[in-house]
C-alpha cells in the first residue's frame, strides 16, 4: 500500500506565493499599478495574515461570515481579521455592496433567511415550503437593502468581503491562461492524484505577450460565464440575444487574436441555445459571427427551415468547396443531393445511410441489447478470433505515445506553466505547422522495427500515469500497441498519424469500435445496433482506411431470441 501523503499545514501559502512569484517573473512588464500595489500590500502582511487572506481568496464567493472561522494553523483569528480590515485586505459590508445583495444573503441558509425576513417584518407564511433560492429572491424583491444591512451589522453574524478580487483574478488567469484553472491543481499534484509532465521552468514562456491579449481573453471568458449564469436563471432568449449581439458589436473587431477562439466557441454556444429555443432568426444572426464548425452547417439548416432555399444552397456549395472537416463535407454533399432529388421528385439517401445499408450484418442474442459491442466481441471469440474494444482510445494513445516529446516540446512555445496538461496549441492548426518536420522525422523510426519496439517500451513505462490529453492509461494498452504495429504496415501507420496531426481537434474521434484479429487476418469494426446510425466522422475514417488498404468494415447487428444461434448473413 502506498504511503499516505500529508501536506504541510500551510501548504496553500506555498502554492499562492509560488503562483505570485511565477506571474511576477513572466509578466512583470504587463502588470498594472493596482496589481503591483496589491503585491506590496500583501507582502507587508505577517504570515498568519497572509494565510487567512488566502483562505478567503480560495473559497467560493466574495462574502464570508466570520463568526465560525476555524483554521488550526492560524492563531488569534479575531485579531488577524481586524488587522486585515485595518490594512484594507478585507472590509465590512456597507451601502456600496447593494449590487452584491444576493451574494451577501446567499451566505445564510433557508431558515436563517426566513428569520431575517421576520426581523424585517415581512410576511413569511408559506415561505418554509420554498427552496432557499426562492426565499432569497423573495427577500431581494420585497426587502430594503438599508434595513437588511442594519440588521446584519447589528447581529452576531459578522460579514466581510475580500478586497483585491480583480487583481487576484488576473494573477490566477495569467498563471493558468484560463478561467478553468484552480489552486486545487497544486493539491491534486502533490497528493499524487495527478502526475504532470516535467518541464524545465526556465524554458516556459508567457502565454500572453501583452496586457491587451490577457485582458481580451479574460473579457471573453467572463462573458461566457455571464451567458451560463443567464441560462441558469432562465433569462428569455430574446434578452440573451440582445445582450450577446451588443457585446459582440462592441468588442469583436477589437479582440486580440489569442481571444478569438474563445469568442468563437462562445458564439456557437449562444447560437445553439437560441436555435434550441426556436429563435431561428436570432440564431442565424449569431451563427454568422463565426465560420467555426458547425456554424455554416447550422446556418444552412436554419435557412432551409425559413424557406430560404437559394441562400441555403449557395452556402452549402461554399462548404463543399472548402469543408473544414468530415461533418461539413458529408453534410454539404447530402444536402445538395437532397435538393437535386427533391427537384426531380426522387428520394435521396445520406452517404452514411448508404454505407450502413450496404454493410455486413450478424445476428446475436438480445441479452446483448445494452452491451452491443461486448456481444460482438463474444461473437468473434466464439469463432476463435481475438477482439477488443478500442474505438478512439487506441489511435489517440498511439499518437500521444509516438510523439510524446514533440507534443510537450517547450521549444514550440506552447507550454506556459508547470501544471499544464495540454499544450496551448494542441488542437489548433499551428500544432501541425510548427511540428511537421519533427513529426515526419519520428515517423521514419517506424521503418526500423527493433528501434520502434525499444522506443514504445521505454516511453510507455517511463511515462505511465503522466497526464497526456491523448493517452488513456491502462495495463492492456501496451499489448494493443504492439499488435497494431504487427498488423499495419509502416506506410499505413505513417499516413494515419499524419492525417490525425493535420486536424487533431476533429480527427481523434470517429474510429471504429473494435479491433479484431487472428494469426493471419485483422479488421477494425464499427458496430451498429438496429437503432444506431453512422456518423460523418466515422464514415470519413472508414473511407480513409479503405484508401490506404487498412481493413475495416461496418457490422450491423440484428437480434436472435436463442443465444446459441449465430447466423452470419
Keywords summarizing the entry:
569 residues; alpha/beta; Arc Repressor Mutant, subunit A; Serine Threonine Protein Phosphatase 5, Tetratricopeptide repeat; 3 domains; 5-stranded mixed sheet; 3-stranded antiparallel sheet; 27 helices; disordered C terminus
Residue-averaged pLDDT: 94
Please compute the radius of gyration using only Cα atoms: 29 Å
Broad structural category: alpha/beta
Tally of individual helices: 27
Give your account of this protein's structure.
This protein is of the alpha/beta class and 569 residues long. It folds into three domains: 11-108 and 157-190, Arc Repressor Mutant, subunit A (Orthogonal Bundle); 201-353, Alpha Horseshoe (Serine Threonine Protein Phosphatase 5, Tetratricopeptide repeat); 357-560, no CATH class. The chain is built from 27 helices and eight strands. The protein has helices at 11-27, 33-43, 47-57, 77-86, 101-105, 110-119, 132-142, 145-154, 165-176, 184-190, 211-232, 237-251, 260-276, 280-287, 295-305, 309-321, 326-343, 351-357, 372-381, 391-402, 404-407, 430-444, 449-463, 477-487, 490-502, 504-507, 536-547, and strands at residues 63-65, 90-92, 159-162, 360-365, 386-389, 514-517, 522-528, 552-560. A five-stranded mixed β-sheet has the order 4-8-7-6-5, with helices on both faces. α15 (295-305) runs antiparallel to α16 (309-321) and α17 packs across α27. The longest helix has 22 residues, at 211-232. It is globular. The protein starts with 10 loop residues before the first helix and ends in a 9-residue tail after the last strand.
Amino acid at each position: 500500500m502506498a504511503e499516505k501523503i500529508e501536506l504541510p499545514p500551510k501548504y496553500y501559502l506555498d502554492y499562492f506565493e509560488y503562483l505570485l512569484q511565477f506571474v511576477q517573473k513572466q509578466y512583470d512588464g504587463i502588470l498594472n499599478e493596482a496589481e503591483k500595489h496589491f503585491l506590496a500590500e500583501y507582502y507587508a502582511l505577517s504570515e498568519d495574515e497572509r494565510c487567512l487572506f488566502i483562505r478567503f481568496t480560495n473559497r467560493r464567493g466574495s462574502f464570508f461570515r466570520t463568526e465560525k472561522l476555524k483554521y488550526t494553523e492560524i492563531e488569534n483569528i479575531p485579531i488577524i481579521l481586524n488587522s486585515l480590515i485595518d490594512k484594507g485586505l478585507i472590509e465590512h459590508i456597507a451601502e456600496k455592496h447593494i449590487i452584491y445583495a444576493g451574494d451577501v444573503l446567499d451566505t445564510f441558509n433557508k431558515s436563517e433567511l426566513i428569520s431575517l425576513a421576520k426581523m424585517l417584518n415581512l410576511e413569511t407564511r408559506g415561505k418554509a415550503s420554498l427552496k432557499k433560492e426562492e426565499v432569497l429572491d423573495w427577500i431581494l424583491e420585497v426587502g430594503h437593502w438599508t434595513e437588511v444591512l442594519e440588521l446584519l451589522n447589528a447581529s452576531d453574524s459578522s460579514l466581510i468581503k475580500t478586497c483585491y478580487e480583480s487583481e487576484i483574478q488576473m494573477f490566477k488567469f495569467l498563471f493558468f491562461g484560463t478561467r478553468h484553472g484552480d489552486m486545487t491543481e497544486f493539491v491534486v499534484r502533490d497528493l499524487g492524484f495527478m502526475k504532470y509532465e516535467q518541464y524545465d521552468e526556465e524554458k516556459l514562456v508567457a502565454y500572453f505577450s501583452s496586457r491587451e491579449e490577457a485582458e481580451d481573453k479574460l473579457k471573453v471568458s467572463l462573458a461566457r460565464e455571464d451567458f451560463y449564469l443567464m441560462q441558469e436563471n432562465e433569462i428569455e432568449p430574446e434578452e440573451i440575444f440582445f445582450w450577446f449581439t451588443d457585446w459582440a458589436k462592441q468588442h469583436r473587431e477589437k479582440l486580440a487574436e489569442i481571444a478569438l477562439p474563445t469568442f468563437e466557441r462562445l458564439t456557437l454556444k449562444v447560437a445553439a441555445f437560441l436555435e434550441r429555443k426556436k429563435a431561428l432568426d436570432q440564431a442565424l444572426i449569431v451563427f454568422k459571427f463565426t465560420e467555426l464548425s458547425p456554424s455554416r452547417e447550422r446556418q444552412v439548416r436554419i435557412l432551409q427551415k425559413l424557406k430560404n432555399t437559394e441562400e441555403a444552397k449557395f452556402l452549402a456549395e461554399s462548404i463543399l468547396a472548402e469543408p473544414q472537416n468530415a461533418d461539413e463535407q458529408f453534410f454539404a454533399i447530402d444536402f445538395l443531393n437532397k435538393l437535386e432529388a427533391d427537384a426531380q421528385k426522387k428520394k435521396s439517401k445520406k452517404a452514411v445511410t448508404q454505407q450502413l445499408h450496404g454493410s455486413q450484418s450478424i445476428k446475436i442474442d438480445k441479452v446483448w441489447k445494452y452491451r452491443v459491442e461486448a456481444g460482438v466481441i463474444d461473437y468473434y471469440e466464439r469463432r476463435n478470433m481475438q477482439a477488443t474494444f478500442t474505438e478512439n482510445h487506441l489511435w489517440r494513445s498511439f499518437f500521444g505515445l509516438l510523439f510524446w516529446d514533440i507534443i510537450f516540446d517547450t521549444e514550440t512555445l506552447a507550454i506556459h506553466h508547470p501544471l499544464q496538461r495540454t499544450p496551448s496549441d494542441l488542437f489548433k492548426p499551428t500544432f501541425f505547422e510548427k511540428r511537421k518536420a519533427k513529426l515526419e522525422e519520428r515517423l521514419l523510426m517506424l521503418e526500423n522495427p527493433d528501434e520502434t519496439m525499444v522506443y514504445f517500451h521505454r516511453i510507455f513505462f517511463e511515462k505511465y500515469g503522466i497526464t497526456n490529453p491523448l493517452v488513456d492509461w491502462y495495463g492492456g494498452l501496451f499489448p494493443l500497441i504492439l499488435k497494431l504495429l504487427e498488423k499495419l504496415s509502416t506506410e499505413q501507420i505513417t499516413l494515419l498519424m499524419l492525417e490525425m496531426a493535420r486536424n487533431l481537434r476533429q480527427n481523434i474521434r470517429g474510429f471504429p469500435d473494435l479491433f479484431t484479429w487472428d494469426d493471419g487476418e485483422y479488421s477494425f469494426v464499427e458496430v451498429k445496433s438496429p437503432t444506431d446510425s453512422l456518423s460523418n466522422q466515422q464514415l470519413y475514417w472508414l473511407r480513409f482506411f479503405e484508401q490506404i488498404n487498412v481493413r475495416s468494415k461496418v457490422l450491423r447487428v440484428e437480434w436472435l431470441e436463442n443465444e446459441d444461434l449465430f447466423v452470419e448473413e
